[in-house]
Write a structure and sequence with these properties.
The complex is a heterodimer of chains A (172) and B (231). Chain A is mainly alpha-helical and 172 residues long. Helix content of chain A is 66%, strand content 6%. Chain B has one domain (32-56, 77-230): Rossmann fold, CATH 3.40.50.300. The chains are: A mainly alpha (172), B alpha/beta (231).
Chain lengths: 172, 231
């Protein structure tokens, strides 16, 4: 979140609510649950870390929503580093894999039943994200994010099918 | 009333060692207005099941009612009539006639069902408008994109106001933008109360499904019913 807020400031100085709107617009339907306080908490931390400076109009009482935030030189450096950094979230399927192994070994549950239940949950999420993508009001950039979410879930679904094939064979 | 009802529906191919149970004693009830997706890997029997439901193939065993009519014992003539009037079919490869324009492809279904030419043309143009292709009515299929061709095929499937629409991998040949368009159309059908059965391996279909059945080796392995709160 810190890096995102910093990067959103790179274009020009902005109020907290403007930053929030920029992030929310880019996320589309997935950004609706973002709360306002989160941005201000992040901005306060970034200010304390010397990556952001806040200024406010003279004569008016100082309140977070009246402050205009800007990057410091250190903030700019951090944005430049973040933009070119190659990090990628690892999907964590290890736990589910171990759950199947443990369930089969100790006969806690039929692994195929666990796979079925998991598939229903993944299908529910695909349904939710794809329904959001069907809305014509979603702009193409936010739609791209939804497409990525659905693609990853479809990969999970394919892996669950492989799990089902293997564990169905082991049962008998 | 159920739009579709199957009891012990079975389709076998071959004999002895080469016997294949493509559809193996399937029980299925689809209430009118339900949107059902049947998912599974290729070879699981989902296409054969759809062909049985659409009267395109005959079951080896079992009973099958479509739109209140028992069809497993129906004559070929009766089946052909049923398909023309009560079933709309949508395929992966569109199955449009290459030498006919979009509107001619759509109206053909009405003409075959005995509609007057003028009425058939009007209905076809209305449907092309509904699927967002009013300005493509006089184009040949070769002049349309894959997504547009599938939308023409959907318009054709709806021509005779079928009680059941059956679709076999309708997004199988489409890119993601065209898939989105087809899903949006299906959502419109769903909201209008059209009974729709889609067999596919594309999980995006869940977006428009009231219910998803997973099929393996000719039988149903899992059945999830979503809350219809989204309707």
């Amino acid at each position: 979140m810190q890096d995102v807020v910093l990067a959103m400031l790179a274009k020009e100085p902005a109020h907290g609510y403007e930053l929030r709107a920029r992030v929310r617009d880019a996320l589309g339907p997935l950004g609706e649950s973002m709360n306002a306080g989160q941005i201000y908490v992040t901005l306060t931390r970034l200010t304390r870390a010397g990556l952001v400076v806040a200024s406010h109009d003279d004569g008016l009482p100082d309140r977070p929503d009246r402050r205009v935030y800007d990057l410091t030189p250190a903030g700019r450096e951090r944005v430049a580093a973040w933009i070119t950094e190659v990090s990628w979230p690892k999907p964590d399927i290890t736990e589910f894999h171990l759950k199947l192994v443990a369930a089969a070994a100790a006969r806690l549950a039929d692994p195929v039943d666990l796979v079925d239940a998991q598939r229903r949950e993944v299908m529910r999420r695909i349904r939710e994200a794809q329904r959001a993508a069907l809305d014509r009001a979603v702009d193409p950039i936010a739609g791209l994010l939804l497409e990525g979410v659905v693609l990853r879930l479809r990969a999970d679904l394919e892996w669950l099918e492989a799990c089902e094939r293997l564990w169905t064979g082991r049962k008998s | 009333m159920s739009a579709l009802l199957a009891r012990g529906l079975t389709k076998r191919y071959g004999w002895a060692d080469s016997l294949v149970r493509a559809v193996d004693a399937v029980d299925l009830e689809v209430p009118a207005g339900q949107t059902l997706a049947i998912m599974g890997p290729s070879g699981c029997g989902k296409s054969t099941l759809l062909h049985l439901l659409g009267g395109l193939q005959r079951p080896t065993e079992g009973e099958l009612w479509v739109a209140g009519r028992r069809i497993d014992t129906m004559s070929e003539r009766g089946l052909a009539k049923l398909r023309r009037h009560h079933i709309g079919l949508i395929f992966q490869s569109f199955h449009l006639m290459d030498e006919l324009t979009a509107v001619e492809n759509v109206e053909m279904a009405a003409l075959l069902a005995g509609a007057a030419p003028r009425h058939a043309r009007r209905r076809a143009l209305d449907l092309l408008d509904e699927v967002g292709l009013a300005d493509r009515a006089t184009h040949l299929p070769s002049e349309l994109s894959g997504g547009q061709r599938q939308r023409v095929a959907i318009a054709r499937a709806l021509t005779n106001e079928p009680q059941v629409v059956l679709a076999d991998e309708p997004t199988g040949n489409l890119d993601s933008a065209a898939t989105l368009e087809v899903l949006r159309l299906f959502e419109t059908l769903r909201a209008a109360g059209q009974t729709l059965v889609v067999v596919t391996h594309d999980a995006r279909i869940a977006a428009i499904a009231d219910r998803v059945i997973s099929m393996r080796d000719g039988a149903f392995a899992d059945d999830s019913v979503f809350l219809s709160a989204a309707r």
